[in-house]
């Protein structure tokens, strides 16, 4: 069962999304502040994080960067939820490590489509080559981005 963390200071929206996700068979968790969101993610280890950008205390951008740098959490699929629908904000969010974005207000059906796409992405990240048993290109890219986000020394051999 997919575990989804909802980080949004809009309590009503977060509960509405949680109810919809639960009805669809997901295990949903909510935190309504940026403070403590990273620690909560470490505790519950979600597969997907729905992350509002404008949070009190800590921004969604900051949380996303921390998730991408963490060796246990960097593979979480991150969907940014934002009222900032302008292209520069969207690009900045993707540069911080978000996998996708959804502009508020949104329809629940659109959110479910995005979650389905992220679930497919997570499946492809786990796929291995049937002959070599090596991780595929998507997994390699994600691992490389994780190492770069951590400012780790890396070497690639081809």
Keywords:
single chain; 158 residues; alpha/beta; Rossmann fold; five-stranded parallel β-sheet; 46% helix; 16% strand; globular
Question: Overview of this structure, please?
Answer:
The termini are far apart. With 158 residues, the chain is of the alpha/beta class. Strand 4 (77-82), helix 4 (87-95) and strand 5 form a beta-alpha-beta unit. Helix content is 46%, strand content 16%. The chain has one domain: Rossmann fold. It has a five-stranded parallel beta sheet, sandwiched between helices.
Q: Report the helical percentage.
A: 40-55%
Strand order of the largest sheet: 2-1-3-4-5
Class computed from helices, strands and strand pairing: alpha/beta
The H/E string reads: EHEHEHEHEHH
Question: What is the radius of gyration?
Answer: 16 Å
- Strand fraction equals 15-25%
The CATH superfamily turns out to be Response regulator
Give the CA-CA distance, first to last residue.
Answer: 36 Å
The number of distinct structural domains comes to 1
Classified by CATH, the class is Alpha Beta
| Main sheet record | 5 strands, parallel
Query: What is the fold named in CATH at topology level?
Result: Rossmann fold
Task: Report the mean per-residue pLDDT as an integer.
Answer: 87
Shape: globular
**In total, how many beta strands?**
5
Provide the low-confidence segments as ranges.
none
């Amino acid at each position: 069962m997919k575990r989804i963390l909802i980080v949004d200071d809009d309590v009503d929206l977060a509960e509405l999304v949680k109810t919809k996700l639960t009805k669809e068979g997901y295990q949903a968790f909510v935190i309504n502040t940026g403070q403590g969101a990273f620690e909560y993610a470490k505790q519950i280890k979600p597969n997907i994080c729905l992350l509002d950008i404008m949070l009190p205390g800590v921004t969604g951008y900051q949380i996303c960067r921390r998730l991408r740098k963490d060796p246990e959490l960097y593979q979480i699929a991150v969907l940014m939820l934002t009222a900032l629908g302008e292209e520069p904000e969207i690009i900045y969010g993707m540069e911080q490590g978000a996998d996708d974005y959804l502009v508020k207000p949104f329809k629940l059906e659109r959110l479910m489509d995005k979650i389905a796409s992220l679930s497919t992405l997570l499946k492809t990240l786990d796929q291995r080559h049937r002959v070599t048993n090596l991780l595929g290109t998507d997994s390699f890219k994600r691992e490389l981005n994780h190492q770069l986000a951590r400012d780790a020394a890396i070497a690639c051999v081809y």
